[in-house]
Structures are given as structure tokens and as C-alpha cells.
Amino acid sequence: ENSKRFEDALAVDLGRHTVETRVSEFTGTLGEIVEAYHNVAKWSKPQAAPFDIQWFPLRPKIYKSPKGVVLIIGPFNASPRISFATTEELTYPLVCTIAIMAGAIAAGCACVIKMSEHIPTVSGLIAELFPKYMDQDLFQVINGGVPETSKVLELQWDHIVFTGSTTVGKIVASAAAKHLTPVTLELGGQNPVFLDPSYDLDVAARRLLWGRFMNVGQVCLSPNHIFIPASAQDKLVEALSRAYDSFYPEGAANSDSLSRLVSTGAFDRLQGVLEKTRGTIVKGGLAEADREGRFFPPTIVKDVKEGDSLLDAELFGPILPIVPVKDLQEGIDYTNARPHPLAAYVFTDDAKFKKYVIDNTQSGAIDVNDVCVHMTVPGLPFGGVGTSGYGAHTGKFSFDTFTHHRSSVDSPAWVDKILNFRFPPYTDKGLKQSQLIAAKIPAPRPGPGIVPAKAQKSGLLVSAQSVAVALGVLIFALGLRRALGYDGWLPPTLVALAGRFGVSLSS
Amino acid sequence: MSPSKGTASVLQYTPIDEIPKIREHLKATYNSGRLLPLEYRKQQLLRLIHLVEGNYARFEEAFKVDLGRHAVEVTGAELNNTVMDLMYLHDNFETWAKPEKPGFNLKFWAFGPVIRRVPKGVVLVVGPFNGGAIVTGNACVVKMSELTPNVSATLTELLPRYLDQDLFRVVNGGIPETTAVLQLQWDHIVFTGSAAVGRIIAIAAAKHLTPTTLELGGQCPVFCDPKMDMYLTARRLLWAKALNAGQTCTTVNHIFVPYEAQDALVEAFTKVYKEFFPEGPERAPISTLVTDVAFKRIRGLSEKTKGEIVCGGQWDEGRRWMAPTILKNVALDDTVMENELFGPILPIVPVRDFQDAIDWTNSRSHPLAVYAFTDDAKFKEYGKSNTHSGQFVVNDTTLQTIIPGLPFGGVGESGYGMVKGRYIFDTLSHMRATCESPWFVDSMVLGWRFPPYTDAKVKQAAALKPRVPPLNPSWGSMLRSWMPF
Prior knowledge:
The structure holds two protein chains of two kinds. By secondary structure, chain A is α/β, with parallel strands linked by helices.
């Protein structure tokens, strides 16, 4: 109902166009909430453990219980130096808090959301709307800066979800550790693109620029830099230029399709790294930049080498460096030598190369022939690995994040007749009986320390099951023969064979 | 803490400057991709199973020296279960490791979404060895406890003979060695132990943004329905307490029973006690306490308690042994109720009604398990809905940890994360989302995503908005909700 107000608020705080807001915020957020709404009954149902012939009488079940009171938090500036709070929540406030809250509500948790002070209009709007719609005894919004956030982190919560930078992620994790609170961290990284030049460069160029300049690059999933074999760099630059011009036909400064940076601090940081680059700017640049209006022109830089200022840290801004390499293996090695990114992107039509990149890199997620879209595909977990974070959310993954899986067992009295050996006094007979519920172990391949041996004799109960199954199959097969019209229960060949040995089988 | 007396030469501590080198080496092997093929993981896991299964006698001997534990407890309660767990992993992990396709979705099927479960890297396990690391394709360092030096030494000696030393190693030592290990970066840490040490681990992990799984403890209460068969109850409860002298995270901590039923329960315990220990507890193979400090703590509690001893009470300082001791008429504020006992004392706490017991339980930190002994379905539901705990078990104890298919994990101060079977597989895997955009997606469906944004594109973007159920449903809206799109 209040979507227009949100759109306006985001326009004020971030200069974001309605299309981007609708796609990235509303669709995502509403999609999450609606999905949770339709599935809460299904997800909350107690789950029976998979059937096990030895243990089923104990009725093993898993109950889904809520963890308690959870905290969903966006980033904040822990110190003035971290003025470029490189975070998703600043720029995607709804997706990073309310969408996640849907999972918490579905799981049955009470929830506190800490909104960011850097998007005052949006945070103010949420604080105003919450009491009108949500049960105030269960769901609250907290606003504030560093002192308020520090206070929040001193308290005990039953789960904390944090979206933001690595630096602040460590602060949140350390605060949670004191209370033994489980945490989900959605952090960032330098998401690489591996571009195989045999892929259609025009299609790639449009998708790459869309991903890079959406919200002027202030997206945790935004492609950070592109690896391409040096021989194909010029072709790529041409394709990118064509796409660039088609996006901003009247020039970037006059386009109303570009958002603004979240703060002047972000502007200063991006200006700094761009001024220090030893690459060549092919599009954009600082000429039309406007610090007061927080407008940073979308910029493409080529011939960026390892060690360049643009590759020092996650850019989180509208600069797209192209890194020419001898071959893409160089790009893969470079990526693997550094912290795991939140996403990796590979553009190729070659199935073998696609598999190679997937198998030889580590990242939160990996998209083929596109960027960023995996976040909107339902059923896919969204989460990082290594310093890009841990835990996962969206959909059922959010529900599971806020749920404690409570195992349960209901042991009938007669079970002790079988498990009697567990009670003292311990006897050798009891020891033998305890082997009955032991597993059947295959023999390993011989090797150092292992002598080739027969497979271990199985416990009685387990082999009874296999015998029963074998008998069942045999009887079924024979019955099937009969039903299909063959005379008699037994195959004539078998009867004849038995007859040769003097055994009469005919009925 | 120095090694226990008489065993200084048994367990060799890992030199501290070796520890980072071990981690580097394992990381390098892991990065070479040696553990990616499922076949290799299966082979290594099978060798691990044979390590345990082929050396029962040695482990039994080691447990006997460290803890005075009888072979039935070692083999029946520990080793068999370990092998069962490992076999469950062995038989099933290939299915779990397959890439998973999320359910069909009309709008997004073209993207071919897949979830791959991939390993995280080098995992640190502090506590018992975990087969989950192998099947998920992670290299693994195990830091074994120095408090059971013979068991740790046995495993340290056997591991290199069975498992790939470039991927799986044991580190031994006390506090300095453990501190050195925790300063390094790991890709996941699984810790089993006390809440106090759990905090230390979590704080160390936070510095490296390492995900952790903590299996801690708690004061696991028993709610005993007076209408329950007291003999059965006493048997199963005393069994749980006698097992390893009560040094199990899922053992029963204390029993709540209404005043009027306490005598019946005490009578049942007395009978069962004689059955379990016909020649008296001193002659029975009851485990010893793991350290002198633990022994002194339990001795102290048994002296300071205001409860009355019903059975047991004997002790032998020389071998750190105390008989399973049942106390009755223990008050809620008694000294034995202050912390997790983790020892062979079993207090019976008579209550006016169960609400008092539940309120007391809820006012403390969440235990690892809540046990209810009752045949009354309403009482079971009452116990379950009004408490919060890692597990909820009816009419038995401890068995929930060996049933395959059940996750084992705590909540609140009893820890977080889940281990065993499928759950440890998911814990130690990273779920990596993948999707692939076909070329036609831009011309047919997502063309509006590219600037310049026009009013027409705004409309197209709006088409992706999901249908929102109204706040006040009407017949019309309910009918509409049946439409697939």
C-alpha cells in the first residue's frame, strides 16, 4: 500500500529510479514475504526422521521451534574512518531487513530491526509505518547511530542476521560470541567475472553494465572486475561502449536512470582510487562528477594490472575495471589466492570451461552468462563463504535460519527387552548383544595399515532384513510368472535341472 | 594443564610452531583438489571406519586406563555408535553431495537453478573426531583432549596408518597449544565442550569470520509423571547417570517429581541400584572422573548438599572415583542445582506442581535436552510446548544421539548448529547457488532491466510483482489465490 511512499523515500535518499526500486526492492521483498506466508504451515510441520528399521519404534521426530527474539541489523559506521560503509543494507534497506524478517515471523520469532541512520527518509518511513501494521509487542524498529547500535549489540539475542562489510561483520560476530548467539553474516567481496571471448560480447556487455551500474554499483553482488584474455580486450571495450551509449543516450549526467552514491564519503573514496589508477579510462571519468549531488559517472577502465588501486578493495561503486590476462587461468589463480568473493561470474558457451570454473573456484554463488540474478531465483540460497560471510537466507533458508530443529524421541517400554544389554551389570553376553545393532561394514581396499580381509559378518538384525527382502522379491517374481500365465510356480528349466540331480520339484 | 600423573610420556603434545605449518600443508593439499572426487572421500571414510572397528581392543584398553570405563560402555555406547554414524555417512553421502535442483518455478525455470554442496576448506574439530569432514570434502585437523591422554595417544598413533596425512591430522596439547590453534584461520570450527570454553572459541572464530558449530551442555531436567511406571523410569535414569559416571552432555542432571510420588521413585531407585551393582558400586566397573579438579568439585557438592543420600555416596580419592549417588528432598536453591553436574550425582527435586519446575527450568539457560517420563499425551505436549531445549525426549535418555536421521544440536547456552548424519554434512558444506541465463532471456523477459528506464519499462517491472493476499480475505480473493499466476 505504501509503495509510492517508499519509492519517493528511496528517491530522496539515493536518487534511485522507480524501475530499480520496483525490481530490486519491492519484487524481492514482497516475493519473500508472500512465499513465507504461503508456506509457513508446511515449513513448521514436525518432520519424521527418515525410516530406519532399527529405530522406528522410538518415533524419532524433529520439531521446528522458533529460536526466540532475533535481531536483524544493517551496517553502521564503527569509526569515522569507515565512512564508506560498504553495505547492501544502506542501499537495499527493504531487502536486507524486511525480507529477512519474513522468515523470522514464519519461524515464530519476535524480531527487532535496526535500520541504518544513513538513509534517514527510508528508515523514518519504516519506523512510522511499523506500529500501524505490526504487533508492537513482538516486532519493533530501532533507529540510531553508533551508540545505539553498540548498545543493541551488548544485549543477548537468540540469533543475529547482519548485512554489511567485513570489518563490521567481525564486530557483530565478536559481540554475539560473548552471548553464544548464532549469527548469519551477509558480507561482501570482490566479485570477479571470467569472460570467455567466444561468448557473444554484446549480450555480455549489456548484462555486465546492467549489473555494474545498477544502483551505481552499490550492490554486494555487483561484478567488481572483468578478466579477459588480452587479445580480446579491445573487442570487449567496443561492445561495452556500445552498450554504455545505449543505456545513456543523452549522456550519463543527464540520465534519470542512474542512482546517487549513498554519501560524500563514498564519493571521496571512489575518486581517490580512480585518480590513482594506472589503467586507461575509456568511458566516464571524473569530468562530470558532482560531489555535492553525490553523482559519480559510470566509468569503464581498461588495461588494469594486478596491484592497481582499483583492485585493492571491493569498489562498491560505478567503476568497472577490465583486467587483461594471458589466459583465464591467470584470473582464476588470482581469485583463488584471495578471500572468497560473494559471487563469481563466468561468461562462456563452452560446457567444459564452465565446469572447470565452477569446480576450481570458491564463492558464495556462481552465475553463468549473467550477473546478480541468482538472488531473485526462488529456491536458491543466498549466502557467502569465507570472508564473504556464512549462513544463508531467502525463502525456506530464512525460515531454517530462525528455527531450532528440536529432535524428539518417544521410547516404548518394550524396547528394553532388546536393549537390555545396556543396563549394568555388564556381561560378556551383553557385549555380544550390543554387536547386534552394529553396522555392517564393507572391507576396505588393502593399503598401509589395512590387511585384506573378508567383509565383516553382519549383525543379526540387519541381515534378517536383507533375507526378508530377498525372499519377498523371489516370491513376487514367481507369483508374477504365475499371473502372467506360465504354468506352475517354478520355471520348467529349474524343474528339469533339479530332476537331473534327482530332486523332484514338480508340484 | 599438565598431563595426568603417570602418563606424561603417553601423550606427546604437538610443538606449537608446528601447528601453523600443519594448517598450511593441509590447505595446500585441499586446494590441489584431492578431496573433490567422491570416490576418494568414500575410501578415506571407510579407512576411518576400519580404524575404529579394527582397534576396539586398543580403545577399550585406553578408555579403561583414562576413565576406568567398562568395555560394554566403550564398545556398546561409544565405538559401535561411532561406527554406525560413520557407516550412515558412508552409505548416504553420495546422494547428499549431488547438486540439488530447487522446485520448478514458472517464472524462473529457464535459469536452470542448481544448489551445489561444496566443501569449505580446512575444518577444525575440537573434541571427538568427526567423519563429516571427510564426506564433505574438507581437510580436517582434530584437537583431541589432553584430559584423556591414552585415548588421544591411541588415535594419534593410528590415524597416520589409515588416513591421508596431507588432509587429516591430529593436534595434541593443553591450553598453550589450543590457544595457538585458535589464533589461526579455519573454514569452520566444530567444538564440543563447556559453555565457558565455547565462548572462547566463538570469540576467536569471530576474528576470522569463521562459522562455528558449538555442542555445549546444560542442566538437562527430567519431569517424572507420578503415574509412570517407576521401575522402568528408575532403570533408564540410573543407566543414563551411571554411563561414564554422568560425564555425558545428554545425561540427566536432576529429576522433578511431585512430592507425593517421591517415595515411590526412591523405592524404585533403591531396587534398581541393587540390580545394577549387586556387589556394591565399588566393585562395579563405573568410570572415574576425568580430572582431579572434577573429582574435587563433585566431592565438594556431595558434602555441601542439603539433600539426603538415598543410594551411593562412596568415594575413592586415589582413583578419582565416586559412586552414582542419588539424593532426595533436594531444594531448588541447593548447591547441586547451581550448575551442570557432569558427574555421578542424581538429585531428586520434589515439587508442589510441575509449573514450578517448568518456571525454574525456563528461568535458567536452555538445556541440551528435556526429558519427560510419562505415558500421558497431554503431559508430553505440556512438557514440550512449555520448554525450550536442544532435544525433547520421552521415556528415555541419551538414545536420541544415536538414532540416524535426527539432528543433534543445542539452543541458547547449550550451543548452536547441528551435527550427525545429513546435518553435519550440511553444516560442513557450503551451499553454492548456481544459475545460467540463456541468451533469449533479455529479449523475452528481462529486457526492461536495461536503462534508459521508461514508463513502459516501469510497467513491465511491475508485472514481476507477486500477488499479495489481502489483509481481510474475501471469497473473491480466495478464489483468485488458486490461480497459478
